[in-house]
Amino acid sequence: MKYRPHLFSLRLGHALRASCLNDAYGRPQLMRDVTAGLTVGVIALPLSMALAIASGVAPQHGLYTAMIAGVLIALTGGSRFSVSGPTAAFVVLLLPIAQQYGLGGLLMATMLSGLVLVSMALLRLGRLVQYVPPAVTLGFTSGIALVIAVMQFKDLLGLSAPGDLPGALSQGAWLLSAVAETHWPTALLGLGTLGLLLLWPRLGLRFPPHLPVLALAAVVAWWLQQQGIAVDTLGSRFQYTLAEGGVGQGIPPYLPSLIWPWQQPGADGNPIGLSWTLLGDLLPSAFAIAMLGAIESLLCAMVVDGMTATRHSANSELLGQGLGNLVAPLFGGIPATAAIARSAANVKSGAVSPISAVVHSLVVLASVVLLADLLAWIPMAAMAALLLTVAWNMSEAPKALRLLRRAPLGDQLVLLLCLVMTVAFDMVIAIAAGMVMASLLFMGELARMTKLKDLDGHSRLLPEAVPDGWRVLKVNGPLFFAAADRIFAEIAVETAGAQGVILYMSSVPVLDAGGLSALERWLEVCEQLGTKVVISDLQFQPLKTLSRAGVEPIPGRLTFVPELTAALELANSGQCR
């Protein structure tokens, strides 16, 4: 059975059907998927822990996300090569939720976001991401990257913050005042890890640096502890309750159990519970998580499509993302979406189908069970260094700088506005402000494209002479609310004292309610002045708008004709006089 994917389809497991349910998938393709999955799993293991910590929860919740959501989204989504899990883009959204509502509130918001994503898929809203301008995307991702980077310097330098510092600006101000208290063994370890992560690509090694570099940092941390120098590690920072009682260090070496999110602890350490008030409080955050997840996952799918000359199903991908975010919180997973870096590594490692993403999740699962005691030695400074490299990569600084140098002024302003609003306030406000500003600037540009042209003396379009007292004017461009008042004001000036006017509208593709209102006001003025109007060459949409509005011909006053030649004949015949 051969499955033929369709760009706009909504089918569970679209990508799996498209890549595996055909004769071309066999043992060689499976081995390529296994190899790619092993590579991406090694990358995802430390990243998942680091991103969970940055989001305000214990590192194992990032691992659970990669394990549970990673498998579900791969098997049910619409992109063959996307690898899903916790991503850096979510950090600025999730940290305030975790601080205010605890783990339970964060997991409940994740489930609600899954419902939103499933609803978007069922409503076929997968292509709406195309309406987000690149300047908005680059602006808020650069802002997120800057916020994440600022948040890492505390652990990188071994500083102890006085409680939770809300916002990047307050944290940056505190860092400047506390830098003199740097714990130098921690700082040297963190900076050494950062330097090695940056130097790794120049060494020509094809193996990803994440795990070996962090393993080396863990060895150094162990050695420092043997010398009596304490360095903050996963084991010293995070604890868990053992099944037989007592407390373990680092991450638990067993699989997560099913627990309802409202039974998880809130900010006060007690089960958060379930209430309509709490759901109402979490709903705005859930919508924000869902929208960001949709944007990130569909952008990632478009990136890997460009790398592989394939096509994804946007609505199926949203469905898979929604299902993953619905189920993962039951096992302690935080919000997940497709990660561009991991998906690109998946493609470069030779992946063929979503099976590689499944293998990646199995690698994370095996690491939790087998390597938990070793992972506890990873220094927090090394995790901070890893997140600094993630922040740099997600900022797409070269692309943002290129846009600031070459793009029109309006796009430059939108990017800077989104960046500043993300850092100063939050990403939701930044995206909303950026979209509003981009829309207003675009409408302004579109309105300036609508122009009025006097056709008097235009021999090609006017083969017949224009009668005395008549004017022939052509409108070029859409007659919508931002342009219509200006255009009809110009028409009024041009036709002052004229006996009749021919409006040639072959180049008017759109007439909206604002344009209709301006046209009707101008026709009323023409009726008062006794000016006759002939409108010719209406396209379908403006004609439909006029028909629905009940604008009909008025004998001796207003006439509609299909062609300009017919309008000239009518004016010359004297029937409109």
Oligomer: single chain
β-strand amount: 5-15%
Written as H for each helix and E for each strand, in order along the chain, the element string is: HHHEHHHHHHEEHHEHHHHHHEEHEHEHEH
Amount of helix? 55-70%
- Which strand order does the major sheet show? 5-6-7-8-9
Question: Structural class given helices, strands, pairing?
Answer: alpha/beta
Mean pLDDT, all residues: 89
Number of helices: 21
Q: Any low-confidence stretches, pLDDT <50, length ≥5?
A: 1-8
Rg from Cα: 31 Å
Extended strand count? 9
Morphology call: elongated
Largest sheet: 5 strands, mixed
N-to-C CA distance? 72 Å
Secondary structure layout plus pairing:
Elements: H1 14-20, H2 27-54, H3 59-76, E1 84-85, H4 91-122, H5 134-156, H6 168-178, H7 184-199, H8 210-226, H9 234-237, E2 239-241, E3 247-249, H10 276-308, H11 314-327, E4 337-338, H12 340-348, H13 355-375, H14 380-395, H15 397-406, H16 409-424, H17 427-449, E5 451-454, E6 470-476, H18 481-494, E7 500-507, H19 513-529, E8 532-536, H20 540-548, E9 558-561, H21 564-573
Characteristics of this structure?
9 strands, alpha/beta, five-stranded mixed beta sheet, 577 residues, two-stranded antiparallel sheet
What this model shows, in words?
- It is a single chain.
- The protein has 577 residues and is an alpha/beta fold.
- The protein has 21 helices and nine strands.
- It has a five-stranded mixed sheet, with helices on both faces. A two-stranded antiparallel ribbon has the order 1-4. The protein has a two-stranded antiparallel sheet with strand order 2-3.
Summary of the model, kept short:
With 577 residues, the chain is of the alpha/beta class. Helix content is 60%, strand content 7%.
